[in-house]
Amino acid sequence: MTPSVSIxxxxxxxxxxxxxxxxxxxxxxxxxxxxxLQTAYDHFQINYPKFFKMDNLCKTGFLAAExxxxxxxxxxxxxxxxxxIIFSNANSSLDTDIKYESSISTAPSPSLxxxxxPNVLIGEICIRHRIKGEAACFVFDIFDATFQTDYVNTLxxxxxxxxxxxxxxxxxxxKAETFFYLAETGKxxxxxxxxxxxxxxxxxL
Length: 205
Description:
The structure is a single chain. About 35% of the residues lie in helices and about 25% in strands. The relative contact order is 0.23. Helix 1 (about 35-45) runs parallel beside helix 2, helix 2 runs parallel beside helix 6 and helix 7 crosses helix 8. Strands 1, 2, 3, 4, 5, 6, 7 and 8 form an eight-stranded mixed sheet that branches. The chain is globular. It has one domain: 3-Layer(aba) Sandwich (Peroxisomal Thiolase, Chain A, domain 1), CATH 3.40.47.10. By secondary structure, it is an alpha+beta fold.
């Protein structure tokens, strides 16, 4: 029997705002993107020193995941192997790739090289939240809600996950945009996990 998958919560980070389940929980229109990420980290009193070593893409996605999963206690509800994370973006790790290429002319930077793959963000989130299930990162020109929901629903149908973090995480040219949502089964009176509902949330409709 195919499980019924629902969207239990979501977070959007864009335009110097953080929106959690439809409510603006943080805003700093005066800050640059990097300062915005830093002030948001401080505002929510997150204690994770490795945050400061991350590249911009990882900081953006890490912060969104931190707020999405806060108080969710996923590890108490599901084995780590049954928690998945699937995301996509448009620019891969280009923001860091450019900086690393520039460093080669003097001395290649290992600290930059470590972040020259977009799926490093998945690794950072998995380490932080003890996730060991299905994980993948895809690169598209724009957010493809149909692909995203079909892929995640297949993971549920085949029994590979019991819950899944899904969405979009992109950073390039000082522009940050992350949209993560949590897909779960056994939740009543919630939005059905399909491309129409996911796209409406992503577009802010």
